[in-house]
């Protein structure tokens, strides 16, 4: 549970105007998850499997992008920091730890990552793209997946050498892709099926980035299980690896808007928000109503889906976001990863995820071997009312004789899932704290409160020498860049004879 620091300042100064409770912020986004949860990869504080969406972590965590790995998750916060949760056997959480019992059921912050603009989770490793165009990696380093070291793993994020001016990243099963601003693609890691796209290369893996041959300029990239793909500025696309070798196979299409690569299939978003799918289909991951593979250039048309704005292909499962903010899924469902509340083993056609609206992004999971990805899961980002709090005082004013105590109460009221602890602090106006000045003694019975037990008693005791009159006190509460204030007026009586 994160700690909210609330400072109560009692000042003999003009009253600061009371701030009204914040209205819902349409730009506030948060993550939810569903599916397998054996390693805590849903981030809800449990290891319980979920057949419908549950919130990730505290409502105050403002996530704008999330990527589901194999048994772990990584998310980008609005402030440019990176948060992770789930399995950590290979250091894939990036928090400096690794081991069987080092996993986390709630989000933790990855070390050393600031000003990040994108994240991508692979199979037990992850990538982050910083605003300065550098790429950072952490986790397992199977066949060079980290792109920067020969060690078997690294639980601390580090920069991949030689990568500058990067505008997009993608993480496959054990290889990574980076797109530079000049349209070049650089690749590293596993090359067992020539998924790095290096002409005349017989290397089965590359420990550091190498330039991939491609028809330039490229505007989008996707790393799959053992293949890769790219979209060009003219709407055409190409694919390489997975039986195609290092040859880049161009597709005869010219209206591709986005692509996403899973373990052995791919989703293509084309003009009009239409979705096409190609590849293997043993769990119905193509969404075509059958279990037959599809190798037709351009893919098969996925029915029922129009106005799609986001596509995501995972391990034998697929997901999309429509313009109306709904999420639709299909394919494998052995751990509830479709999120429709059912326990059927698979869906051959798209179904709507239960209870989800306002979605802006979805992640169907990293391309991973089925025996590695123990319990698939999904993540989605959606717009939600901003978690907030209000501050109230009871009573709002009081009268006291010098030398006698007066007690009033401060209470924090949570809205929209706000759940942080509240630390209380009281201080007097420094201008009145001069030598020899009579003072008002202050005390708080509970210096830390919670929204589910939100009351704290504040006791004021004016010294016998305090001049009589009305003193305006200000109580201030601050969290997540928001300040709440509430006034209190204390009237000190004329001392009785």
Output the keywords.
2 domains, 497 residues, Immunoglobulin-like, 4-stranded antiparallel β-sheet, mainly beta, 38 strands, single chain, Methylamine Dehydrogenase, Chain H
Care to describe what's here?
The protein is mainly beta and 497 residues long. It folds into 2 domains: 3-23 and 387-492, Sandwich (Immunoglobulin-like); 29-383, Methylamine Dehydrogenase, Chain H (7 Propeller), CATH 2.130.10.30. It has no helices and 38 strands. The protein has strands at residues 3-10, 29-35, 50-55, 63-68, 72-77, 82-86, 104-109, 116-121, 125-130, 135-140, 153-159, 166-171, 175-180, 185-190, 205-212, 218-223, 227-232, 237-241, 249-251, 256-261, 265-270, 274-279, 300-301, 308-313, 317-322, 327-332, 346-352, 359-363, 377-383, 388-394, 397-400, 406-415, 421-428, 440-444, 448-449, 455-462, 469-479, 482-492. The strands form 10 sheets. Strands 3-2-29-28 form a 4-stranded antiparallel beta sheet, with no helix packed on it. Residues 1-26 have low confidence and may be disordered.
Brief summary of the model shown:
With 497 residues, the protein is mainly beta. It is 0% helix and 48% strand. Residues 1-26 have low confidence and may be disordered.
């Amino acid at each position: 549970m994160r700690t909210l620091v609330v400072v109560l300042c009692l000042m003999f100064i003009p009253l600061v105007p009371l701030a009204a409770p914040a209205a819902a912020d349409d730009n506030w986004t948060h993550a939810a998850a569903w599916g397998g949860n054996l390693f805590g990869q849903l981030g809800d504080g449990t290891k319980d499997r979920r057949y419908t969406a549950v919130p990730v972590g505290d409502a105050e965590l403002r996530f704008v992008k999330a990527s589901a790995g194999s048994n772990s998750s990584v998310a980008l916060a609005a402030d440019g920091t990176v948060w992770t949760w789930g399995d950590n056997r290979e250091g894939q959480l990036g928090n400096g730890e690794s081991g069987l019992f080092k996993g986390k059921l709630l989000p933790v912050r990855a070390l050393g990552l600031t000003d990040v603009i994108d994240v991508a989770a692979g199979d037990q490793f992850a990538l982050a793209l910083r605003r300065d165009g550098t790429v950072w990696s952490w986790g397992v380093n199977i066949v060079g997946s980290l792109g920067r070291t020969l060690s078997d793993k690294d639980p601390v994020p580090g920069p991949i050498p030689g990568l500058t001016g990067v505008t997009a990243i993608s993480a496959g099963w054990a290889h990574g892709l980076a797109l530079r601003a000049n349209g070049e693609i650089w690749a590293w890691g596993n090359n067992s099926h020539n998924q790095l796209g290096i002409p005349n290369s017989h290397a089965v893996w590359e420990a550091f980035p190498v330039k991939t041959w491609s028809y330039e300029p490229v505007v989008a990239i996707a790393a799959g299980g053992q293949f890769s793909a790219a979209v060009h500025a003219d709407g055409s696309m190409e694919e390489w690896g997975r039986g195609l070798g290092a040859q880049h196979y161009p597709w005869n299409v010219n209206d591709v808007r986005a692509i996403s690569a899973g373990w052995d299939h791919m989703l293509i978003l084309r003009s009009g928000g239409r979705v096409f799918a190609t590849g293997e289909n043993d769990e119905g991951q193509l969404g075509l109503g059958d279990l037959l593979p599809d190798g037709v250039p351009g893919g098969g048309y996925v029915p029922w889906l129009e106005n799609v704005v986001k596509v995501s292909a995972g391990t034998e499962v697929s997901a999309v976001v429509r313009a109306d903010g709904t999420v639709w899924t299909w394919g494998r469902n052995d751990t509830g990863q479709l999120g429709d509340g059912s326990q059927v083993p698979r869906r051959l056609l798209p179904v709507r995820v239960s209870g989800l609206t306002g979605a802006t992004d979805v992640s169907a999971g990293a391309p991973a071997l089925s025996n590695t990805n123990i319990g698939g899961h999904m993540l989605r980002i959606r717009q939600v009312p901003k978690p907030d709090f209000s501050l109230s005082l009871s009573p709002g004013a009081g009268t006291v004789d010098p030398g006698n105590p007066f007690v009033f109460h401060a209470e924090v009221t949570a809205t929209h899932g706000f759940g942080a602890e509240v630390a209380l602090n009281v201080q007097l106006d420094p201008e009145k704290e001069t030598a020899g000045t009579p003072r008002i003694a202050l005390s708080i019975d509970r210096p830390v409160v919670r929204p589910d037990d939100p009351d704290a008693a504040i006791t004021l005791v004016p010294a016998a020498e305090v001049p009589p009159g009305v003193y305006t006190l200000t109580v201030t509460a601050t969290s997540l860049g928001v300040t709440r204030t509430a006034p209190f007026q204390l009237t000190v009586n004329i001392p009785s004879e």
